[in-house]
UniProtKB/TrEMBL annotation:
Gene3D superfamilies: 3.40.1280.10
Domain tRNA/rRNA methyltransferase SpoU type residue range list: 119-252
SUPFAM superfamilies with a match to the protein in the record: alpha/beta knot
Gene Ontology biological process terms in this record: methylation; RNA processing
Database matches in InterPro entries: Alpha/beta_knot_MTases, rRNA_Methyltransferase, SpoU_MeTrfase, tRNA_m1G_MTases_N
Originating organism: Spirochaeta isovalerica
Keyword Phosphoprotein listed: no
Top-rank taxon: Bacteria
GO MF terms held by the record: RNA binding; RNA methyltransferase activity
UniProt KW keywords: Methyltransferase, Transferase
The protein, known as: TrmH family RNA methyltransferase
Length: 261
């Protein structure tokens, strides 16, 4: 770790970029139950406090951190103080966080193996790497056994897909395939279908997810309509639609909780 003296000698912009990184290191140690150098952290907070570049909300967060450091045995309060200060520092330099920048929750359940059923997902022309990654993250949580991708779908190996998946593209099996390769019965998440609450979700089958712009392709819709049909999510907004990754997560949660695996 860089010494406080060396940190103070850096150019202003460089030093200000270092501050959040150093705080993140402290957060990781606190999350894992490790020890931290309280003297160093107090010196870091004092250095930030004396930097007039920052607004009062940053200085206030510094004072809260210093106060937390003065109280032994309040590791959760200290963690929250570090986290609050870090994001205020990032905001001060215009570096707003993406979902993939967040540290994993210390309460995140760890399992030796995934809980899944014969549930499959077919991404039919989902082109945004962010959406692909987000869908993988929901699918990993809600029991999907494998994701099959149409040739028009963005690769899960795309840098942004891997980041937004929070590592789930490396956990969940996936492959490129065609409609003929899918496990039946088939059903599509699309407008004009049976309401989510009353749809007869199968214990085994494939849910088809369409593209952000055009929805499910005509060929896939025909295949779904000849099988289980369409499932729809009721909304109350003026737009009448929601992001494809959000919609997928809602449908997968309902499907997964219909059965006990």
């Amino acid at each position: 770790m860089i010494t406080l003296r060396k940190l103070a000698s850096l150019k202003d912009d460089t030093r200000r970029r270092k501050f959040p990184l150093l705080l993140q290191g402290f957060e990781e140690n606190l999350k894992s139950g490790g020890s931290i150098n309280r003297v160093y952290l107090a010196g870091l907070a004092d250095m930030i406090l004396r930097d007039r570049f920052y607004e009062e909300k940053v200085h206030k967060a510094c004072r809260s951190l210093i106060s937390a450091l003065e109280t032994e045995g309040k590791e959760d309060t200290l963690l929250w103080s570090c986290n609050s200060l870090r994001y205020k520092l990032q905001s001060a330099v215009g570096a707003e966080p993406g979902d993939w920048d967040f540290l994993p929750s210390k309460n995140e359940a760890a399992r030796s193996e995934r809980v899944s059923g014969e549930l499959y997902l077919y991404l039919d022309g989902v082109r945004s790497p962010f959406n692909v990654g987000s869908i993988f993250r929901s699918a990993e949580s809600f029991g999907i056994k494998e994701i099959i991708l149409s040739e028009e779908t963005c690769s899960p190996d795309h840098r942004r897909a891997k980041r937004s998946s929070m590592g789930c593209t490396d956990i969940l099996p996936w492959s490129y395939g065609k409609l003929d390769d899918l496990v039946h019965p088939l059903f599509a998440l699309e407008l004009g279908g049976t309401a989510l609450e009353s749809f007869p979700f199968p214990e085994k089958g494939t849910l088809i997810i369409g593209s952000e712009e055009l929805g499910v392709s005509p060929a896939s819709l025909d295949a779904a309509d000849s099988s289980l049909g369409r499932v729809s999510i009721r909304t109350g907004g003026l737009k009448g639609s929601i992001n494809v990754s959000v919609a997928t997560g809602i449908a997968l949660q309902k499907w997964f909780n219909t059965f006990t695996f």
